[in-house]
Amino acid sequence: MTDDALVVVRAGALTTVQDLGRPGHAHLGVPRSGALDAPAAALVNRLVGNPPGAAVLETTLNGCSVRPRSATVVAVGGAPCAVTVDGRPAPWGAPVRVPGGALLDIGPARSGVRGYLAVSGGVAVEPVLGSRSTDLLSGLGPLPLTDGTVLPLGRPGRPHARVDVVPHPAPPSELVLRVTLGPRDDWFTDAALRTLTRHPYAVSSASNRIGLRTEGPALERSRAGELPSEGMVLGAVQVPPDGRPVVFLADHPTTGGYPVIAVVHPADLPGAAQATPGTPVRFVAVRHRR
Description:
20 strands; 290 residues; mainly beta; seven-stranded mixed β-barrel; six-stranded antiparallel beta sheet
């Protein structure tokens, strides 16, 4: 039994292992996966002295509790929440030393959806296709965590950051998504394109790591029938038969047959990871396809 391990005491609603993901395998039908809020994951890794690609834990809504077998340094970021060590308050968004055997509790999100826990040395589960990320669509990588799961930890590298506080973006009160129209915007009426970019939508409670679903007016097609399956990219705004746009996130399928009306600017996707159900969504067209 190794002392360099993390024991999951309370797994929470959905806690997974995530890193930078496994891009470059779409031709094999393998999604990109990886942390939905990549900047938040990178920041907590930096705080504990890990490289950007070290694996972290991604929590959903109600956090998790873990117990390191030996003393380590951790950082919690992403969705703001209470952090305690053996019941005593600890800083959020800063390095925290946790004694071996102590209980680290990450509380429910006060705002936003997904929290990130980095541990010095990173979570060292076995990589699959070069990544330790859990992929909910394909099933690659470790299973979502359950109570009692034991996670091996890597060897600590650089010293942790010597900071008292670092800036963290607040979860969005309104999710503004810049989009490039196309490649299948010609499958929709002019009225539908105006609706997409002028009418507010809202985040649906049916959203997950695969896609952010929206509630709002249906988009009317100008063509009937379906497309042959074609490649899908991160940030694709696909429109299923109910007409409500779906923004593809990290665990999205690599192919699909519903038309993609637009693609979201990559820099706006971390906000989608933290948008709670009911958050207003606004699509802003910044460029038409050529």
